[in-house]
Amino acid sequence: MPITSVQDTDLFVGTTAAPRQIVRVTLAGQRSAPLLVRLAGPLVRTPEAAAVPMGVDEVVVEVGIVFAAPTSPGVAYPATVLVERADDGSALSTLDTMVTAAETGWTMWMVSHFHYDPVWWNTQAGFTDTWLDLPGAQEKRMPFQLSAFDLVRAHLDAARQDEDYRFVLAEVDYLKPHWDAFPEDRRDLRGFIRDGRIELVGGNYNEANTNLTHPESTIRNAVHGIGYQRDVLGADPRSAWMLDVFGHDPAYPGLMADAGLDSSVWARGPWHHVGAKRHTGDITRMQFPSEFEWIAPSGRGLLTAYLADHYVAGWDIERKATLDEAMAEAYRQFSTLRRVAATRNVLLPVGHDHNVPSRFCTQIHREWNARYVWPRFVVGLPREFFAAVRADAAERSVTFSPQTRDMNPVYTGKDVSYIDTKQAQRSAEVSVLDGERVATLAALLGARFPDEALDKAWRQLVYGAHHDAITGTESDQVYLDLVAGWREADELGREVLAGAVDHLASRVDTSGPGQAVIAVNTVSFVRDAVVSVTVRDLPPDARGVALVDPHGEPVPAVTDAVLRTPDGVLVEVTLTFLARQLPACGYRVYRAVGAETVPPSWTAESAHRPIENDAFVVEADPARGGALSRVRDRRAGRELVRDGGLASELVLQAEHAQHPVWEEGPWHLLPAGPGRGSGETPAEVRVETSPLGERIVSSTELGGLRITQHTVLWRGLSRVDIRCFVDGSIGQDHLLRARFAFDLPGALPVAEVGFAAVGRSFGFPDVDAAELSSPVRLRLRRQDGRSQDHCVGVAELVAAADERLVRELLVALVAKGVTATTTRPEGPRYGALDVDSNLPDVRIVMAGNVFAEEVLGSAGDSYRRALDRHGRVFVPATRTRRELWTPDADLRGPRDLAVLIVADLGALIADLADACVEVDVPDGLAGTSEPAVDHSVAVVNRGTPGFVVAPDGTLHISLMRSCSGWPCGVWIDGERRTAPDGSSFAWQHWSHAFELSLVSGAGDWRQAGFARAGQDVNHPVRARQVPSTPGDLPSELGLITVSPPEVLLTAAKPAGNPLASGAADTMAPADGITVRLYETTGTPVTATVGLHGGLTSACRTDVLEERRTEPLTVHSGRATVGLAAADVATVRLTPSPVLIDSSVRLARAQEPVQPVFTPLLAAQRGTGAARQPPVERARQPGAATPGSRRDGGGAGHRQL
After folding, report:
1. Are 511 and 1028 in contact (CB under 8 A)?
2. Alpha-carbon distance 475 to 140, whole Å?
C-alpha cells in the first residue's frame, strides 16, 4: 500500500479545547480491506486513527494529530506514518517524515462588500439607478454587476433571507439617494445596523483621492460622511474605507483619527496599484505586515488593514461552480494572506465593482466551520475584524508595525489627465475657503452667514474629489457633468466672497474723493501682493485715474485694460498694483482718484536683456525657445540653472495609448521617449517694463502648439512668476511638461502635501509644490572642523517594531519631512521598483541587529570602531544615487544606499529637533560623495500637481496630456458631444493657461519659507470697487491674527456643521468661530490666535468640531494653543459680544430655479440641491407597481 505523499496543513479538527492538526496522507493502489492511518513520533500522536474504506482509486486521508509539549508552531518534528489493517492492526506501509506544527486560533473574516463608483465610464444616473436601461452601458457590465439601487436592495434581501449574511455599506453618493427613494427599506436597514449585521464604513462622503485636493476638502469629506452616516442613518462609522483610491495624502490618517475613526482599509499605495503579490507573484516582498499603524506627520495614526491581494480578492470564490471548489479557493486565499498578517486574523474582502451578494460566503461560513475547528472562516464585519486583531495583539504582546511611508505614487497619469479638472478643483477650493473665511468675518459684523451656499459648494467639491473624478479617469460624458459641478462650486464661492467683501466694506469708512477700492487679504500673515481691480462708475468727464493709499500717497499701478467712449471719456479701467504690508486676514481701502490719464501699461523695449529685481536676475534665450537660460538668486549670489541648461522649457513627449500590461491609459504616464523641447527651436523674445516691474514675453511653436510665456519679476516680491499660454491642438497621445534644469547638487525632491512637506523619490520622466531641498540633513563632521551635509528624504528604518522609541523616531522624522518604512532586520528590504511604489535614499539601522552587522561586515572594522566610539556611524553607499537610480532600480543590497547606524534612538530623536543630525566621521572614513548645498528652490503650482525630479536634479512639471486610452470618448446616452474639431474632451484640444512661481532661499524649505509661499501664490488678494460711505471701521485693519509665522490659518468658519448632519440650524459666528491651525516646520510651538473685537473663551476640539478636548487660555483677547510638531489644531473661539443683525444675505439661500426635483441623478449634477434635507420625499410621474424595482425608485424627477 504505497504512501505517495505526506502533507502537513494548518487545518484542525476536534474542538477548540482539544484541537487535532490535519496531516494529509495520500495512498495509492488497491485497498482490499478497510484501513487505519495514523502518525506516531517522539512528540506526535494520533488520538483517533483515520479510517479508509476499501477501493481502487488514489485517496487522500486526513489524519488528526496532536503534539506533545514542548513544541512550537512553525517547527518540524519527526513522525512515522503507519497504514494498518482495520481488522487486525497489521502494518501495511510506513513512512518516516517531518511534520511542521501549525498554530491554532486563526480566523479569516470574509467581509461582503460592493465597491461603488458614482461616476467613472458610466454616468451618475447609470451607476446609481438606470444601468440596466442603458443599451450603451452594457458592453462593460459584467453579469454580476448592477446599479447601486439594485445592489443595496439585493444585499438587504440576502440579509433578510439568511441570518448569517453580513455586509458593509459605505458612500453617501448612493446611501442618501437610496434612503430617499426607498422608504420601505429604512426599518430593515436601521435594524440590521443596530443588530450588527450591517456596518456603515468610510466615515467619508466618498472614496476621495486626497492627494489631489486641499486637506480642508478631506476634512469636509469626513464632516459630511460621518454627519450623514451617524446623525441621519444612525450608524457609528469606525473605519475609513478607501479601497480603490489612487494613493493617499500623508496627513489622511491623522485627520481621520482626529475625526474619531480608529481604523482604515485600502488596497493601493506602498506597492504600486495592485500590490506586491499581483506585481511580482510573491506576497512576502511586502516589508511590513498587512495590519500596521499608519501614522501622519502630526503623529496621529490609524490601525490599518492593507488588502494585500486587492479589494476583489474574495470574489474569486464566487467564480467557482461548486461549494467545495469555493471552499478550496477560500483556503487558498487564507494560506496566502496569512503569510503577511500581523495577528492570527485575516481580512478577505468578498466583493468587486458593483457586485451582487456572493452565493458562497455564508455557505462557506457554515460548512467550513462544521468540518474544521481552525482556521475559522466567518462572515463578519470590519469592526469585528479589528476588534479581533487588537485582542490577539494584546494577548500575544504584538506591536503593530509603525509606518509613516508615503503611500504614493500610484497611477501617475491621474495627476495630469483632464488637467483642467485639477485646475478647476484648485480654483474652486480657494474660492470657497476664502469666501467662507471672509463671510465669517462679515457675519460678525451683522450679515447672515451663507451656510446654504457654502454647504452646497463643499458638497460639490467633495463629490468631485472622488477617485474616478478628480483623477481624470472618467469618460467624456462624465467629464462634462463633473465640470459643471466644479464650476458651480467656484461660482458659489465667488458669490459668497463678493457679498462678504461688500458687507465688510459697508462697515468700513470708505468715504473720500474718487472711487473706493477695498483689497482683502485672506491669509493669516501680513504680505505684499499683486492685486488687480476693475474701476467703473467714473465721473462723466473722467479722462484718467490714479491710485492712492489711505494716506493719500500715490500707489504705482499698471493699466491692463481701458474702455473709453468715442470721444475719449474713460468708462472703465482695469488696474494692477502692488499692495504692500496688507494686514493679516484683513483689508485696506485704496482710492481711484481723477487724473489726466491712466497709469502706463507694459512697454516693450527694443533690446533684449536680462530682467531683475531685488531678489532675482532672469534671462531668456531667444535661440532656445525663449526658455530661461539664467535664474540668479541675488540675495544668495547663486545661479539656480545648470550651465547650459534651461528653466521653464516646455517638452512635448509622445505617449503610448495604453500600458502594455495593465492598459488603463489615463491612469498611467506612458512616455514613448524623451520628446522634443522648446529649446530646440528659436523664439521671439522681448522685454517689457512697467512701474511694477519687468517681464520677458516669449513666443514659439512646439509640435503644432503655439506657446506664449510671460516671466515676471515684480518689484518688491521675492519670486519669479511664470504664466504659460498654450494654444492649438496637442494632438493624440501626447504629454506636455515644463522642465527646469536646476543646479542644486545633493538636494532631494520635496513636495508640499496636505498638512506637511515630505521628501519624495527621484523619478524617470522619459519612462515614467515641487521643491529641491532637504527634509533632514546628516552633518558629517571631520576632526579638523570641516563638514559635509548629506540630504535625507525617504528612509528605511531597520529595527524591530517593538524596539523602544521606534515609533517616536518615526514621528520625529516625518514631522521634519522624512517618511519612513519600518522593516524587520531579518525581513525583506525596501527599495526595488518592481514592487515598491517609491524608493528610499537612506537606511537608518539600529545597532546590533543582523542587518547592521551585514553592513559593518561589508564596510570594514574601522566603521565598527567608529560606531563603538561615537554611538553612530555613517556608512556611504558604494555608488551615487545618480548611478544607482534607474527605471529598474533594485537598491536592496546592504551598501546600495547610505546607512546611518545608531546605538541610541533617543539621542537621534533629540538631534532631529533642528532637522540636522550630527555624525562624527573619524579620519580615514569616507564621507558622502553627494554633499548638499545649503540652498533650496521650489516651483509653486496652481492646479498642476504632477511632477517628477530626475536623478540629476531636473524638475519636470506635468502640464497637460491628450490620452486616447479607454474610457476616452465613451458616451453612454443621448447625443454624443465632442470638442469643436470632433475630438474627445480627454485630448484637451483648446487653449490653456498654466501658472507657476519659482521661489528660492538659503537653507532648507523651512528656512526658505516655502509653505507661506504656497499660500501666497494660491490665495490671491481679493479687490473690489465699493461705494464711498462712512463707517465705524478704519480704512485698514487685521481681523484675525495668528502667530508665530510658521503657523498658518487654513480655515475659519462658524462653529459646527449642522447641515452636514441634517439639522435645520443655521450657523451663527456670534456663537463661536472655528479656526484650523497648521504648524508648518515640524517643530513644537506655542501659537496664539486673536480676533478683532476680542475673545471671551477658547477651546481645542476635534476636526468635526464636536468633542471639546482642551480648554485654552485667553489673555488680552488672544487664545494660546500648544501645537506639536506638524500639528493640525481645530480651535473654537467665542468672540466678544458682536453686532447681531443677520438681515443682510451674502449669497443665495436656495437654488435659483424652483421647484427643485430630486435627486439630481437624471441631471447628472453631482450632489443634491442647496439646503438639501436629510430625507427627501420622492414623487415620480406615472404609476408604479407596489414592490417593483421602480416603486419609489428610478431616475425620474422627484419633487421636494
Report:
1. yes
2. 13
The pairing of strands 757-759 and 734-741 is unpaired
Residues 803, 184: Cα–Cα separation, whole Å: 55
The pTM (predicted TM-score) of the whole model is 0.95
Chain centroid to CA 1144: 38
**What DSSP string describes 436-477?**
HHHHHHHHHEEEEP-HHHHHHHHHHHHHHTBTTTTTS-S-HH
Nine cell digits for residue 603: 512697454
- The C-alpha cell that represents 696 in the structure block: 520677458
Contact (CB, 8 A) for 8 and 102: yes
Residue among 345, 355, 269, 266 at smallest CA distance from 315: 355
Relative orientation angle of helices 323-337 and 361-371, to the nearest 10 degrees: 80
How far from chain centre, in Å, is Cα 180?
Answer: 31
Give dist(CA 234, CA 228) in Å, integer: 8
Cell of 1074: 472655528
- 3-state DSSP call for residue 739? strand
Spell 1108-1125 as b/e; 16+ CB within 10 A means b: eeeebebeebbbebebbb
Question: Which domains does the chain carry?
Answer: 3-100 (2.60.40), 107-410 (3.20.110.10), 411-507+1138-1200 (1.20.1270.50), 515-596 (2.60.40.1180), 611-758+936-1007 (2.70.98.30), 775-921 (no CATH), 1044-1136 (2.60.40.1180)
Residue 637 has pLDDT above 50, yes or no: yes
Q: Determine how β-strand 734-741 pairs with β-strand 720-727.
A: unpaired
Identify the burial level of 490 via C-beta atoms within 10 angstroms of its C-beta, where 0-12 means exposed, 13-18 middle and 19 or more buried: buried
pLDDT tens per residue across span 493-527: 999 999 999 999 999 999 999 999 999 999 999 99
In angstroms, rounded to a whole number, what is the distance separating the alpha carbons of residues 1059 and 261?
A: 21
Contact 209, 247 (CB under 8 A): yes
Q: Report the C-alpha gap between 1076 and 1049 in whole angstroms.
A: 6
| Distances, alpha carbon 385 to alpha carbons 109, 381, 392, 942, in Å | 6, 6, 11, 42
The answer to whether 1110 and 1101 are in contact (CB under 8 A) is no
Element (H, E) at 405: none
Spatial distance between the Cα atoms of 640 and 630, rounded to a whole number of angstroms: 7
Cα 344 → chain centroid: 30
| Cβ neighbours for 544, distance < 8 A, ≥ 6 positions apart | 570, 594, 595, 596, 597, 598
What is the number of other CB atoms lying within 10 angstroms of the CB of residue 1033? 18
Q: 342-395: per-residue pLDDT in tens?
A: 999 999 999 999 999 999 999 999 999 999 999 999 999 999 999 999 999 999
Mean pLDDT of the chain: 94
How buried is residue 76: exposed, middle or buried, by Cβ count under 10 Å (0-12/13-18/19+)?
exposed
pLDDT reported for residue 763: 84
User: Edge-to-edge, what's the strand order for the sheet holding 872-875?
Assistant: 819-823, 794-798, 842-846, 898-902, 872-875
Instruction: Give the list of residues 6+ apart from residue 826 with CB closer than 8 angstroms, or none.
Output: 850, 851
Q: What is the dihedral of CA 308, 311, 313, 317, to 10 degrees?
A: 150
- Dist. CA 6–CA 60, nearest whole Å: 9
